[in-house]
Design goal:
YchJ-like middle NTF2-like domain-containing protein; alpha+beta; YchJ-like_M; Nuclear Transport Factor 2, Chain: A; binds zinc ion
């Protein structure tokens, strides 16, 4: 993947998802939402915002951002997201079910992400764990996938 000529949407792929937010809201602009973290290099202030930006990074195929926001001990060595691959999931939307800050450096986010692969619809329902490093940045650790 090259870093040149990145296509960026106007509306943020994450839709500004939050536990108290319904689909009726107008999505935030990408530049004002996840773009600040993915392109701007700013640190997501909460695990909730990091979660949203990671969803948007999957939509946009930003493998480097996904690696940078994944805890070193759990990040897959071969992580590579190619959003243009024929078998790549087409992400349809993010819903945040629950955001639980546990303490200053630990938080959980439960979400449902809907996507299609080869015309078939799927949903990923996961409770994700996040930690905040000594550099002040939140990172994804792992998650429990629910089949409901
Ligand atoms: Zn966003």
């Amino acid at each position: 993947m090259t870093a040149s000529a990145k296509q960026r949407p106007v509306d943020c792929p994450c839709g500004g998802a939050a536990p108290d937010r319904r689909d009726t809201g107008k999505p935030p602009r990408f530049a004002d939402c996840c773009g600040r973290y993915i392109d701007g290099g700013a640190a997501a202030p909460t695990a909730l915002e990091l979660m949203r930006s990671r969803y948007s990074a999957y939509v946009l195929g930003e493998s480097q951002y996904l690696r940078d926001t994944w805890a070193a001990q759990t990040c897959p060595a071969d992580l590579d997201v190619d959003a243009d691959a024929p078998d790549a999931p087409r992400w349809l939307g993010l819903q945040i079910k629950r955001y639980t800050p546990l303490d200053d450096t630990h938080a959980e986010v439960e979400f449902v992400a809907r996507y299609k692969v080869g015309g078939r619809a799927h949903r990923l329902h996961e409770s994700s764990r996040f930690v905040r490093g000594e550099d002040g940045r939140w990172r994804y650790v792992d998650g429990d996938v629910s089949d409901r």
